[in-house]
């Protein structure tokens, strides 16, 4: 059991601000046509180190996505909004988004790199 105060515990946490972009459909047809451009944009952000994670959201155990979530690294809200605005889905008006600042405090990530077969596993 810890003997640290909440303030002492909080002081050691990561406290990294990230930006969460939650998306929802705005208009119907056209999504499939822009999907390659949307994915290319996200892969480019990933390679630049801007994209923390992204993927579809499913409601109540459903199997069809009802929206999406994109988490980006940005120094401020204006930059995060510029990244969201540049997404081809948003620029074309096919999806609307909400922007939220998220402070990452706790959690863990495990990465295993196997030299023998040059694979990596994230768990």
Automatic annotation (TrEMBL):
Q: Outline the extent of the YCII-related domain.
A: 22-102
Q: Which InterPro entries match?
A: Dimeric_a/b-barrel, YCII
Pfam families reported in the protein's UniProt record:
YCII
Domain of life, per UniProt, equals Bacteria
Belongs to which family?
A: Belongs to the YciI family.
Q: What is this protein called?
A: YCII-related domain-containing protein
Q: Which organism is it from?
A: Aliiruegeria lutimaris
Q: Lineage in the entry?
A: Bacteria, Pseudomonadati, Pseudomonadota, Alphaproteobacteria, Rhodobacterales
């Amino acid at each position: 059991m810890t003997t640290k105060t909440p303030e002492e515990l909080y002081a050691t946490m990561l406290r990294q601000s990230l930006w969460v972009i939650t998306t929802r459909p705005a208009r119907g047809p056209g999504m499939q046509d822009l999907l390659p451009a949307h994915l290319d944009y996200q892969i480019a952000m990933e390679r630049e180190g801007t994209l923390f994670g992204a993927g579809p959201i499913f409601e109540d155990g459903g199997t069809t996505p009802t929206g999406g979530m994109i988490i980006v690294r940005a120094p401020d809200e204006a930059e995060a909004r510029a990244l969201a605005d540049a997404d081809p889905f948003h620029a074309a008006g096919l999806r609307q988004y909400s922007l939220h600042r998220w402070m990452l405090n706790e959690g863990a990530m495990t990465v295993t790199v196997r030299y023998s077969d040059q694979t990596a596993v994230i768990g």
